[in-house]
Amino acid sequence: MAGITINYIPYNTDVGFLRIKQQYIGIDHWRTAFFIHVYASLWVLLAGFTQFSKWIQRNNPKLHRSMGYIYVVNVLLITGPAGLLMGFYANGGIPSRIAFVTLALLWIFFTAMALIKARQKDFKAHRNYMIRSYALTLSAITLRIWKYLITNADHIDSSLVFPPMDVYRLVAWLGWVPNLLFAGYLIHRIKKKGLHKKRNPQPV
């Protein structure tokens, strides 16, 4: 992700993803949203990653809170709104636009709920919402993985060749829906493990 970001520094408009978005480069608010999203997304990935370190939670709770606020502020005020605006201009027509707008709205909602629950000291709910939020954050990576797998599927079977826009429509959904389903599985597993501990407490 750092390598992808570097390609756009300081202000390159004819590299990577932008090569297929030239029709939007002249739209000021779209171009601004794109560069905000690109430059800020890496910090969201890094800050969110620290939130799942039990060592940091136990030994440096101040760092945990600080990184958490960086993550929340970034998603709610910077990257999330930028991603939402970009979603309305997504390639692939209505299916892709619905996918990316829904992704952005859920990302903002889960992150806002994680903050609210933390302030209410409902830390179980806070953890669950953070799992969902970060699962959507990771769509930046999983989308690219799916795109690579689909576009290279012809190496396995020559009949598995999809037109570029069909690929984009597929990854628009595959990039985040499986992530959210897996997040739900993790939350269920954690809940089940907690219930098991309550029913079978360890001897003192």
Which consecutive residue ranges, at least 5 long each, have pLDDT under 50? Answer: none
- The quaternary state of the protein chains shown equals single chain
Structural class: mainly alpha
Q: Over all CA atoms, what is the radius of gyration?
A: 19 Å
Query: β content, as a range?
Result: under 5%
Major sheet attributes: none
End-to-end distance: 47 Å
Q: How many domains, as an integer?
A: 1
Count, helices:
9
The topology string of helices and strands comes to HHHHHHHHH
User: Globular, elongated, flat, extended or rod-shaped: what is the shape?
Assistant: globular
Number of E-state strands: 0
What is the typical, i.e. mean, pLDDT?
A: 85
Helical residues, percent:
over 70%
Question: Topology of this structure?
Answer:
Layout: H1 2-6, H2 28-50, H3 54-59, H4 61-87, H5 94-119, H6 123-137, H7 139-151, H8 164-174, H9 177-199
Helix pairs in contact: 2-4, 4-5, 5-6, 5-8, 6-9, 7-8
Describe it.
The chain has 204 residues and is mainly alpha-helical. The chain has one domain. The protein is built from 9 helices and no strands. The protein is globular. The model has no long low-confidence stretch (mean pLDDT 85).
